[in-house]
Structure formats: C-alpha cells, structure tokens
Design goal:
504 residues, alpha+beta, Arc Repressor Mutant, subunit A, 13 helices, 14-3-3_dom_sf, WH-like_DNA-bd_sf, DEP_dom
Length: 504
Amino acid sequence: MVDRDQLVQRARLAEQAERYDDMASAMKSILADQSAAAGNATESGAAVQSGERSSLAGSAQNCQNTGEQGAAWTSAGEGSAQPSSGVSRSLTSSSTLAEILEAMKHPTTGVQLLPEQKGLPAHCFISAEVVHWLVNNVEGVHTQAMAIDIMQKMLDDQVIVHASGEAMRTFVYGFHFYRIVMDRDPDRVQGIQPSTIWYTAAMEDFALFQRKWFEVAFVLEERLHSEIPVFFLPWLPSRPASYATATVPEQKTVTLDVDVNNRSDRMEWCSCYYHGNFSLSAAFEVKLHWMAVTAAVLFEMVQGWHRKATSCGFLLVPVLEVPFALPSYLYGDPLRAQLFIPLAIGCLVKEGSEHLFEGFEPETYWDRMQLFQEAILYRFGFVQDKFSASAFNFPSENKPQYIHVTGTVFLQLPYSKRKYNTGQQRRRRNSTSSSNQSLFGEEKIGYNWAYNTMLTKTWRSGATGDERLADRLLRDFTDFCANKDNRLVSFWESCLEKMNASAP
C-alpha cells in the first residue's frame, strides 16, 4: 500500500516531467527569431537523397549521451515565422521602466504570463518571450541585446525577480522563469542590502528550484565578419568553439518522475543532466542516470519525448556517453576502435612556403587549423558537441567533438585543445618545424570517425536516413579530405578569394 508521503513525492516528481515539454516548446519558439542554421546534410555532391536533404536543411542538431547506467538523446530545431503581438507602437526606447512594465502587464497585449501551477509563483513569464515582446513592441529596441539591457535594469530595480526568489542578479535570456513583483519590500527598493540570513535562505531556495525546474539559457550567437573565413581573421575569437557564460553552469540537473503514466506500484525516479546553454550551432545533451527504475517504464517515457520532439521540429537520438574508444579513456573499448581520416594539407601549402598559415602568428597555427577543420565539418553538416559527457569525465582528454545533423556519425579532432601562456607560446614558436605534418608535433592532422551504434531501427526516421547513409557520408568525406577531384584545393582557394576580396 502506498502511503501519503510517497503519493505526495510522486506528484512532485510528476510535475517535473512536464517541464521538459515546456522547455522544448520554448526552444522551438526561439528558433523563429534566429538566423543561424546547421546547413545541408553534406557538401554539394554528397550522396544524400533529396528527401533526406530537405528534411535536414535549416536544422540545428543537438545530441545527448548515456552514463554508466544511463542513456541520453539529442535534438535539432527548425525555425518558423512568428506573428507580431499587435501591441500599439506607443512605447519607445526612451519610455520609463514603469511605463514598459505596465504595458507588459496588459492582459491582452502584454507579455503572456504562465498559468498558476504548483511550485511556481504567480505572475511568472519566460525570459525569452519578454525579450521578443520588447523587440516587437518597443520602438527603438531593434536587437535582443537592447531588450536584455532593459530587463536587466528592471531586475536591478527589483520590479522583476527570478521565480525562485532574488538570488540571481543577472537577467538570463532563454527558457528561464521570472516574475513581476506586485508588492515589493520598501527596504529593498531603497537599495538596502539584505541580511546574510536572508541571502543564505534565498540561495537555498534557488538551489531547490534548480532541482525542480528545467531552465536553459539561449546563446546569442557572435556575429563575425560576414565574408572572411574565421581561420583567416587577423584576430581570432578569444574562445573558439566555446559557449560558456559567466552566469549559467555548463551542466544542470533536475529530478524526474519516470512513471508519468502511473504504470508502476512504486516510486520510480531518475536524475536528468542537461546543458545549461542552448545554441543553434551546437548539440544539446540530455543524460539520464538512475538506480531503481523499471526498464520498460523508462523506455516509455523516453519514447514519449521522442514523439514530442519530432512534433516540435527537433531530432532526438540516443548516443553512447563515450563514442570514441580511445586507449587513454578509462572505459575505452578496443572492439570499437574509431577510424582515422587524414587531411591532405600538403596540397594546400604554396610552393616556397613552410606552413599552411604562413603570414600569421605561429602561436595561432593550432587554433587556425582547428577552425579550418571545423569549416570543413560544417560544410558536410556536422555541428559541435559543445560539452560532451567525456569532457566532464575525462577533462584531460578534452578533444573537440562533433555530431552529424542526422545523429548517425561522430567526428573528433585527434588533438586536445591548447591554451598557452606567454612562456609556452614563446617556446612553441621557437620549436616550430618546417615540416607541414609536424605542425602539430607527433599528432596527425585529420579526424577520428565513429558511428553512432545506438541508432537502431527503432530510432530511425526520414531525418536520420537509412543504414547506408553513414557509409555514403564516410566515402564522400574521405574523398574530400584526400583531395579527390581537387575538391579540397577548390575549397581552400575559394576561402582565399573571400579573404582577398575583403582586403582594403
């Protein structure tokens, strides 16, 4: 017989399972206002059927991984046009915060508030929706950054607070919950600092809130030069291929009730690990860990996610936690040895030159080569697996990793990310060899290739393609890297032309 405490706990966990649906819907709505896209499934001329190509164009791929007793899945989003809210253009960027706040509260033309539900205070809204509302309805607010600045001022003035309380001092754009303050504490309005006891209690409430609700930040993509390839820029991005923010953790955790349909006579729950940031140009990971769960009940929940993700324009596929069975990994599997695809950079070096990127600072050769290899991967429909599970479990093996938009293939750069201090850069510059292949020392230039062995027939669809898609992609990608039919040289020369055309 299930006692009352168990029923209450089960109800609380069941409430959490519904948060995944809300998060997926918010992610899809945000895609409508973003211009980034993952591109076609393969480079022009790749052997992917036209039906498969059309289903992948304009999509952004997300991946998930599985733990020791866990599994994970991946999703990709498509955008669609969003209608205007129809609010009159009476607000301008010079309007006061009070005027903007009153317009936000309007029952018909204001920001859509979330319905009251257990665990969530009244007058709550999603941060991404209010940012879009400001852009669409306030004259002079043309960018998301300008709208975020307005909301940050409201947060500083405490006319809005995070739904958990007041522990967060930075407005986070994305699927984050905030609420409009109806009755503010006069002392806090006047700027009096809260006591230590109050602050500690607020932080505890915030930590508890994070364990109960999905919250994901949406990354504002950095707009680089529109023409010059990034690996030819005079100054490289300070943190290439990194999407970390100062206020949002890389990985977050919530507790989920697995038995959403009440099939079991006992409490079944799991911990769900997920990325704290969502980017259109990178994979998004959802990882499940459990100790006491019925396999059939867990599979039913995940299959429900799969169906709902498809209806929202996402692609959800299972993957291994460590797709590359490298010998240095603790759980490396010699029976799953990955393939190595060499990149023929020798044909790209000009006669009389010593290095591919001669003319740039030698300290930037590593980053430029990585960005060049990334450009090739993007051409074939790969997106970055920004923070894979292996990066958390094996930080010393933090190798850049990518997944195809179909979820069928992983690629990895065979060298770890380098971050040198001044002394290390000087030593590396003095020890640089004239040999092209020794640009990376003993490490080879190319890619590690691994199939997604978790993608069974149950998970395949028109978006993933048939079982032969990965083999066709491997053959086409290998031919490109080997410069068959002069394709690699043609790509390199087209990049040089773009750089020269943008030169003053």
